[in-house]
Amino acid sequence: MKIAIVLPVFNEEKHIENVLKNLAKSKLTIIAVDDGSKDMSSQKLKGKIPKIKVLTHKVNLGKGSAMKTGCEYAFNNGYDAVIFMDSDGQHSINDLPKFIEKLETEKFDIVFGSRNLGLDMPLIRFLGNKFASVFVNLLFGIYVSDLLSGYRAITKKAYQKIKWESQGYGVETEMVIKTKQEKLKYTEVPIETIYLDGFKGVSILDAFGILLNVVYWRLKRYN
Description:
There is one protein chain. This protein has one domain (3-221): Alpha-Beta Complex (Spore Coat Polysaccharide Biosynthesis Protein SpsA, Chain A), CATH 3.90.550.10. The protein starts with a strand and ends with a helix. The protein is an alpha/beta fold. It has 8 helices and 7 strands.
């Protein structure tokens, strides 16, 4: 199975060089999508490692759009699956073999990375993440323990079925919902999370927007 890493990048000049250096050890092709960064990310992406393809959005379109751009390139160029990783250094390459095994050996369509949410995570974030997982399960009948984890993998076949609409942070949740709707074979693997800059990611405003999207997707299902 031919697998690539898709790396959405937005204003990550502080960490992107170390991220690329570590990813180079995996020997996998890296498809980095610079999503309209305003800092030095785009310059630091180029010419650092041999197996990298840099794609660029002239303006910031959102994480979901960057992930889609990476998928389209990968699947139009002969790759069978992609593994998504965040570009802020929070994901460990030591977990990559877990995703590869689930894709190649166990033939899962989608693999979700799950952090140990009880360790070193603020209570409000822990409860919010768990609430989101339970809420989606109640509405759609699928439980993924770490709904918002950006470390996940998808095959070409699965991507063609669930092409998401979300341009921003709602993409992870939409992927989970459509996994259920399309009856795709999925699993979770435990992953390490490295907090380099405190607790980044989805803000309260982002979370509220995702919640509204979940309700919209539920209503849309019956229209």
